[in-house]
Amino acid sequence: MTIDILFIWTAFKEIIKALPITLILTILPLLAGFIIGLAVALIRIYKVKFLCRVANGYVSFFRGTPIIMHIMLIYFGFPLLIDQISTKFDLGIQSNSIPIILFVLTALSLSAGAYLSEIFRSGIISVSNGQMEAAYSVGMNSFQAMTRIVLPQAIAQSIPNFTNIFIGFLHTSSIAFIVSQKEMTGAANIVASTNLKFLESFIAAGLIYWGLTIIAEGLSFLIEKKATAYNRGGVQ
Amino acid sequence: MIYLKDIQKSFNQQPVLKGINLKIGKGEVVTILGPSGSGKTTLLRCLNFLEKPDEGIVQVGDIQVKSKKATKREILSLRRQSAMVFQHYNLFAHKTVLENVMEGLIVTKKYKKAEAKRESELLLEKVGLGDKHNYFPSQLSGGQQQRVGIARALALNPEVILFDEPTSALDPELVGEVLSVIKAIAQEGITMVIVTHEMSFAKEVSDRVLFMDGGVIVEEGSPLEIFNAPKEERTRQFLNRISRDFSVSFLEERAN
């Protein structure tokens, strides 16, 4: 078997058309996860009655099971649920009219929320207690102290971790193709099997993922440098 | 002005404050001395509820709070009567020197940004840091950071400023610059409660000295009374030990 170098370029052009879907599958879940994660982290740190247990269970389950499982459960489970509710209340919604991408986005958002909540939690805990006390001593309430003093520092310090999660989810979005959502890996698979050139297609897809990751790392480095400038010491 | 009644506090069933009663008048400068573990820092932190007393009444300015039934709102208004200077400075790490001083004015005093800026610049001038507005705390020496801490406390124009061992984390050569700033504001008639290990500073600056040991105020009086004619045995022992340490370290320094 020989490798058809030229076909890598052909496949590349074909696969990159699915880039928008891959980006949607990466960025939207992370945005939703950002909000879920922050809320869950705060609930767990402040040990909010009842909600704290729900949050613990949520994080434990979603970090304790593979993401592919979440996609499967939601892809096969939600339609059942939606159809039953729909017939019961006569809503006229049919599960098979819901685009697949919504199921995938829901599953990925829930997973991202669980992972990000631990990053928020560690970031918040890493800010010294003295910062909170100083905020209280100038007369701030807990909300002001959290939003003005603790969170900005916690988030700035967590940037490398956020990047890690971003890269992880960029690659995880590839498993959406098992429920026939055509993102980049799905596209590579189609190009590969129609042309019977598997190696070339997956090399092309790999190069795109790698390129995206390098861009993400570069951006992260710049943002981190700017956001944590306060911590670097030395003289201006 | 400040009124404490029967303040009690334990950590893990270990009593740290065993019923403190105290009155401090407006404009008074009170220093609290005592061996470590005597509860002096805890007492100071009870004044702004960074430590919640188990028992007793805390009053600062017009705000009186019963420890047991303290609501969030009460604690907040009690805290707004005071400001604190911390042993480890605790400047807001992600904010510049100027922003650190402005923060309280903007958030709790509802100043306009320009107003807060003007006010803060004056205060930084006063503590000798007029040229460091845009530095981050991490770029300053300990002494400079602590002076920013003092400016941040002054900005709030509080009823009382609480100093929690303001020079204990500083290099010996930086202690002087911080103490002289504190002395200068003491002369302006601001009420201050200072926990310190700097005996000569306490002697010089205070109107009244409290000596604490084992969670109670053992003795109180003017600096003259406490340092020259302590009535209690425990106070005498403590002061002897301190002055012996002092003279030994002084001799060592001479020898080197």
Note down, in words, how this protein is organized.
The complex is a heterodimer of chains A (236) and B (256). Chain A has 236 residues and is mostly helical. Chain A has a single domain (5-227), classed as Orthogonal Bundle (MetI-like fold). Helices cover 78% and strands 0% of the residues of chain A. Chain A contains 10 helices and no strands. Chain A has helices at residues 5-15, 19-45, 51-64, 67-89, 100-126, 129-137, 142-157, 159-172, 184-195, 198-227. The radius of gyration of chain A is 22 Å and the shape is flat. In chain B, 41% of the residues lie in helices and 24% in strands. Chain B contains 9 helices and 10 strands. Chain B has helices at residues 40-47, 72-79, 97-107, 113-126, 142-155, 172-186, 199-205, 223-228, 233-255; strands at 2-11, 14-24, 29-33, 55-60, 63-66, 82-85, 160-164, 191-195, 208-213, 216-221. In chain B, the strands form 2 sheets. Chain B has a 6-stranded mixed β-sheet with strand order 6-7-8-3-9-10, sandwiched between helices. In chain B, strands 2-1-4-5 form a 4-stranded antiparallel β-sheet, covered by helices on one side. In chain B, a hairpin with a 2-residue loop joins strand 1 (2-11) and strand 2. Chain B is globular, with a radius of gyration of 19 Å. The N and C termini of chain B lie far apart (48 Å).
In short:
With about 240 residues, chain A is mainly α. Chain A contains ten helices and no strands.
Overall residue-averaged pLDDT value of chain A? 93
Structural class of chain B: alpha/beta
Catalogue the unreliable spans of chain A. Answer: none
Shape of chain A: flat
Helix share bin of chain B: 40-55%
Instruction: Give the biggest sheet of chain B.
Output: 6 strands, mixed
Largest beta sheet: strand ordering of chain B: 6-7-8-3-9-10
CATH H level, superfamily name of chain A: MetI-like
Number of domains of chain A: 1
Q: Biggest interface and its residues per chain?
A: A-B, 27 and 31 residues
Number of strands of chain A: 0
What fraction, in percent, of the residue positions of chain A are helical? over 70%
Estimate the global geometry of chain B from the Cα principal axes.
Answer: globular
CATH architecture name of chain A: Orthogonal Bundle
